Amino acid sequence: MNNIYITTPIYYVNDVPHIGHVYTTLISDIIARFMRLDGYDVKFVTGTDEHGQKIEKAAQERNMSLLEFTDGTSAVFRQLADVMNYSYDDFIRTTEMRHKKAVTALWTSLCDNGMMYLGSYAGWYSVRDEAFYQEKELIDGKAPTGAEVEWIEEPSYFFRLSAFQEKLLTFYEEHPDFIIPKYRYNEIISFVKSGLKDLSVSRKNVVWGIKVPNDDKHVIYVWVDALANYLTVLGFPDVKSKAYQDYWENDNNTVLHVVGKDILRFHAVYWPAILMAAGLPLPKRILAHGWWTNEGQKISKSLGNVIKPFDLVKEFGVDQLRYFLIKEMPIGNDGDFKRSSFIKCVNSDLANNIGNLVQRTVSLLYKECEGKVPVVNNSLLRNEEILPDYQEILEKVRGCIKYYNLNGLIHIIEQLSSIANEYIAVRVPWKLSKSDPEVMKAVLYKLLEYIRCIGLLLQPIIPDLSSKILDQINLPRCRRDFSKFSVPISMGEILPKPEPIFAKII
């Protein structure tokens, strides 16, 4: 069985988390939850990036010590991860000693392999992005992200990135699914073909960071520091550790980095080159998603339209937010957060479609079958009453997950619910109770099976509410993974009294 290692970027703690952080980790969490339910061994990690010049400035502006500031902000990110019900296995902080050990070992390995040299850097640097930019990349005197840049000249250690141009291009050619979506893959190839220059990987006038081994006048560039976290959580530099062997060194594993489009270059160019230079295996996939806008406007503090996730959760609920974000923005595209769209989505999909299906079906069972799963003659479960094609449904869903089409996964679930609701309208089970009660039982049993499939498939997306659906039909916990997807609900089971699961947003 393949092992799956799923990572989010570690989030920069210069400010509190926003909707983009929620979305990135949500994508990772849904994939991790799905793969676990499908029998895979999954390790899913997230965390915070706490070094660099931007952190120094943020702490100074708040009159706080660096450690006090990073401790506080990192705790908020962790709190959000828990509030959003992310199923992470590890939360890494770059201020931890285990991380310093890993970064130092990686740097030393690069030096030992002749991949570093001391030189002098003169060029443009963005404190906000913690990134170096070439003159040709600037747009109206600013970084491509819109960030301000400043000219700096200082001694610096350089990584021989230029030596990996052809190796990277060969790797991309041999691994056409390395970057998803495809047009991002093409963008990276175009960037690398335009020519790679050696990368400045240390800063001399920065205090807050990991010191360069044997030269404490320099601090390791924050992005080299941050990228190494993917190895830290696996026990690096102990390459014999079980976690490293299971999730990084294993030829049969899948390493998936989920990132925003703005940091794709760091993950798809610099990180593979660093790993090549250190003689370490490369990740298998990088999934780059788009950005959110707010009611059609770019999100920025200056416009005062930053979307605050804690406020949304308090007003609407965790699972409601999880569902909307995944449905509203297909991965790879940009998405617009509209309050009206959020409310419409929750009311239409969850309350009206899925919620009504569950409520009507279980209420009918209480009225007509004494609150029990009906005992049905199998000969009646054919023609109009034939049960769902479990294998076909599961294969379609697996296809969506294989290509990280989470929006498609929701579409399949919506279809199942719509089919079941249409089936109720056609068969009218409350009328069958008088004309043909045995067929009515078969109809209700089929509806329960649709509800079971919907509840199982919703587990990665809305874990709490899906659990309530499955509790409502009394499905045992031991039958909620996908190995039991084709096992129908047991006849004769006593069901809990029906209770509303999805409340409408007024």
Protein model, in words:
This protein has helices at 19-37, 53-61, 66-83, 97-112, 165-174, 182-193, 222-227, 229-232, 242-249, 264-278, 309-316, 318-328, 339-368, 390-402, 406-427, 429-435, 437-458, 463-472; strands at residues 3-7, 11-12, 41-49, 90-93, 116-126, 131-133, 150-159, 179-180, 199-200, 202-203, 211-212, 215-220, 254-260, 285-289, 292-294, 297-298, 335-337. The chain has 2 domains: 3-289, Rossmann fold (3-Layer(aba) Sandwich), CATH 3.40.50.620; 338-484, Isoleucyl-tRNA Synthetase, Domain 1. The strands form 4 sheets. Strands 1, 2, 3, 4, 8, 13 and 14 form a 7-stranded parallel beta sheet that branches. A 4-stranded antiparallel beta sheet has the order 6-5-7-9, with no helix packed on it. A 3-stranded antiparallel beta sheet has the order 10-12-11. It is built from 18 helices and 17 strands.
Structural class determined from secondary elements: alpha/beta
What is the CATH H-level superfamily of the largest domain? HUPs
Helical segment tally? 18
CATH class of the largest domain: Alpha Beta
Give the total of domains: 2
Low-confidence stretches: none
The termini sit apart by 47 Å
Subunit structure: Monomer.
GO biological process, one term: methionyl-tRNA aminoacylation
Subcellular location: Cytoplasm
InterPro entries: Anticodon_Met, Met-tRNA_synth, Met-tRNA_synth_2, Methionyl/Leucyl_tRNA_Synth, MetRS_core, Rossmann-like_a/b/a_fold, tRNA-synt_1_cat_dom, tRNAsynth_Ia_anticodon-bd
SSE blueprint:
Layout: E1 3-7, E2 11-12, H1 19-37, E3 41-49, H2 53-61, H3 66-83, E4 90-93, H4 97-112, E5 116-126, E6 131-133, E7 150-159, H5 165-174, E8 179-180, H6 182-193, E9 199-200, E10 202-203, E11 211-212, E12 215-220, H7 222-227, H8 229-232, H9 242-249, E13 254-260, H10 264-278, E14 285-289, E15 292-294, E16 297-298, H11 309-316, H12 318-328, E17 335-337, H13 339-368, H14 390-402, H15 406-427, H16 429-435, H17 437-458, H18 463-472
Parallel strand pairs: 1-3, 1-13, 2-3, 3-4, 8-14, 13-14, 15-17
Antiparallel strand pairs: 5-6, 5-7, 7-9, 10-12, 11-12, 15-16
